[in-house]
Write a structure and sequence with these properties.
The complex is a heterodimer. By secondary structure, chain A is of the alpha/beta class. Helices cover about 30% and strands about 15% of the residues of chain A. Classes of the chains: A alpha/beta, B alpha+beta.
Chain lengths: ~325, ~350
């Protein structure tokens, strides 16, 4: 039995005990899947599982806190479930997690880079290691590995780290360690070049806060510091520095919490590469506290603990 | 109207530079992986082949604009007396928006009824509107998300445009479609279009037929009112919405705004900025009450406003230009067409007889 049929069976069997199960279905075109909220048995038939299941569905869990909810998760998504439960933002016992082996998720921005404008896509097929599409009547193809999200190329957790059901066989991780080479390389640039990079990238931000709302760990929701009216912390002015200021706030509030699902960057309608800011902080958190959010469900997050002497912070030595 | 002209690809940059000598020219240019409207500068590659990621809405209705500056002044003779000095600010810059699409220009036709209509004329909007010209490129191909032909527009539509460019052979047929657009054709770089005008018309006529049958959204006006109180329906269609503002801020027809005072000490600026009905603060009243307390209420407002409330006030005109950006750029692929179609076909729950 293939993974999808097995998963559908598991969901169908569990659905009667739950308010709903969240998965994915085909969206408005063959390259865009969309979250599927399954409430009736017939909804389960629409479920799809493949490289186009890009969304981290754990984002919906804190908003459904008092419901019995099932959720399908990729390995990276499952870290958000762990972290949300660890922070008491969801009740793990109210959530039924459906895991499956993830072969990687496509980055549609990379698909555009490889195949050109895909806004007229008529069909898409994942055949082995190839993504084949028909756009405006013309066939185009690319190796799948060239259009996988960066997070997938350095994926260490392809199987859900927490799950109540698992469809298929766990797969091997692509790599064993994350060396944060992207962060190291960027930090090797002169300060002026890094500043110019962010000024250039942030100027096209439309302040829609898709980055924030797609983030499973951004749980302030309607009480975000960026939009509070009283006190009015952040101005409504449309300056690059205000937009960038918010990104820094977002990244700092996610220190030790970000699970690197990359949803902030994927959700950005103008493709600003903002995951880099969170990667930088995750690198620091790993070095200082030897901690990775959402990996070990029992580990105490650094911001939820206090030690007089931190092992890796030599305060007296400053 | 002025005679139609032909602009060869090779002369496009020179013509844009010529126009840029007289006014600010904004054109779709690549920034990272997005295409946005930015000031044209010599040597910049203009993206002519696809719809820009962001519409040119901000040119006439900026994401954030200063309405006035204020300055409180204490009277040293009478410390209890404080005067406030107000300085209104309107500084429109004559601008040509080059290379937008029919849907983008048509957005302002929908704006006009609100900000430049019979009942109210917004001086800030009017000043920018009057200072801005639109050179529209007719679409001869469409995106999956395009539906301009279902909401009163079309891929080669000239509503709201001043110049209409139709891609043909190695260049464009350029037609003045407003009196204000005509002087722009007065350039030695443009040659008479002659029989190319007819070819351009044929291409434009063919384009909407390639888009398939239009959807008739007219019944939505009454049907959306009928499902107004069916919150189960709205909770169902809004379940996957993550309440960000991408749909609203990318929309050429969304015109809601917020006003804030950005002050420091005794002086500051009153700023008008885009609001969006997906935000929990939209219509949040000073009393603490919000008539739209959940995302289901808020998405209902977005859909209802465009396909029912606005048409009811404006002769059936739908306040959507069918550009499809809200669909293609939604992080979770919410499809407004699907919601309206579902509402039009939705059987209302039987009323409880007890």
């Amino acid at each position: 039995m293939n993974v999808l049929s097995q998963l559908k069976e598991q969901i169908a069997a569990t659905l009667p005990n739950l308010d709903l199960v969240i998965g994915w279905e085909r969206g408005f075109d063959p390259l865009h899947h969309t979250p599927l909220f399954m409430r009736r048995p017939e909804d389960v038939e629409r479920l799809v599982i493949d490289a186009l299941c890009v969304h981290n569905l754990a984002v919906y869990l804190p908003g459904l806190k008092n419901k019995k909810v099932g959720v399908a998760v990729k390995g990276c998504d499952s870290r958000a479930v762990n972290q949300l439960a660890r922070e008491g933002l969801i009740k793990r016992e109210n959530v039924v997690v459906f895991g499956f082996p993830c072969d990687g998720a496509a980055d549609l921005t990379k698909v555009r880079r490889q195949l050109g404008d895909i806004s007229g896509v008529q069909s898409a097929a994942l055949e082995g290691d190839l993504l084949r599409v028909v756009v405006d009547g013309k066939e185009r193809e690319t190796p799948l590995k060239d259009v996988l999200a960066d997070k997938c190329l350095r994926c260490r957790y392809p199987n859900a780290l927490t799950h109540d059901h698992f469809a298929g066989e766990p797969r091997e991780a692509r790599v064993q360690t994350d060396d944060y080479k992207d962060v190291v390389d960027f930090e090797a640039l002169p300060l002026e070049a890094r500043f110019a990079h962010w000024q250039q990238e942030m100027q096209r931000c439309i302040r829609c806060y898709a980055c924030r709302n797609a983030c499973p760990m951004c749980v302030c929701r309607d009480h975000c510091v960026a939009q509070s009216r009283d006190p009015h912390w952040v101005t409504q002015e449309d300056e690059t520095r205000e937009k960038w200021m918010f990104q820094i706030i977002h990244a700092m509030h996610l220190a030790g919490r970000c699970v690197e699902c990359g949803e902030c960057q994927r959700a950005c309608p103008v493709d600003i590469p903002i995951l880099a800011l969170k990667r930088k902080l995750n690198k620091e958190i790993r070095e200082l506290f030897d901690f990775e959010a959402g990996v070990d469900p029992q580990a105490v997050p650094p911001l939820l603990s206090f030690q007089v002497e931190e092992k890796n912070i030599n305060e007296r030595g400053w | 109207m002025a005679e139609a002209k032909y602009l060869h690809h090779d002369k496009l940059s020179a013509w844009l530079e010529e126009v840029a000598g007289k006014m600010r020219v904004l054109a779709p240019v690549r920034q990272g992986d997005a295409v946005v409207f930015a000031p044209y500068a010599s040597g910049v590659q203009v993206e002519m082949d696809k719809q820009a990621t962001t519409p040119p809405k901000g040119v006439v209705f900026p994401a954030s604009e200063e309405l006035l500056r204020y300055d409180y002044q204490k009277n040293p003779e009478q410390p209890g007396q404080v005067d406030v000095e107000l300085l209104p600010v309107i500084q429109p810059e004559p601008t040509l928006v080059f290379g937008c699409r029919s849907c983008d220009a048509r957005g302002f036709v929908i704006f006009d009824r609100v900000y430049a209509g019979q009942t109210y004329k917004d001086p800030y909007y009017l000043a920018r509107r009057e200072a801005t010209l639109f050179a529209v490129i007719a679409c001869l191909r469409h995106d999956i998300t395009c539906f301009c032909h279902s909401v009163g527009g079309g891929p080669g539509d000239a509503q709201g445009a001043d110049l209409l460019l139709t891609p043909i052979e190695d260049g464009y047929v350029v037609e003045a479609v407003s009196e204000r657009g005509a002087p722009l054709l007065d350039s030695p770089l443009l040659e008479p279009a002659r029989d190319k005008v007819e070819q351009a018309q044929t291409l434009r006529d063919k384009a909407p037929r390639n888009m398939g049958n239009p959807t008739d959204f007219a019944p939505a006006r009454d049907k959306l009112m009928a499902v107004f109180d069916d919150m189960d329906f709205w909770e169902d269609v809004s379940a996957k919405c993550i309440s960000c503002g991408a749909c609203t801020y990318l929309c050429p027809t969304c015109y809601c705004f917020n006003i804030t005072d950005e002050g420091a000490g005794l002086s500051g600026r009153r700023v008008r900025s885009w609001d969006n009905c997906m935000s929990s603060q939209f219509t949040f009243e000073a009393s603490g009450h919000n008539p739209r307390p959940t995302k289901a209420h808020r998405l209902k407002n977005r859909v209802g406003h465009k396909f029912s409330y606005y048409p009811a006030l404006h002769d059936g005109l739908i306040s959507c230009c069918g550009c499809g950006r809200c669909i293609k750029s939604c992080p979770v692929s919410v499809d407004i067409r699907e919601i309206v179609v579902r509402a039009m076909g939705h059987a209302l729950p039987a009323k409880d007889k007890d």
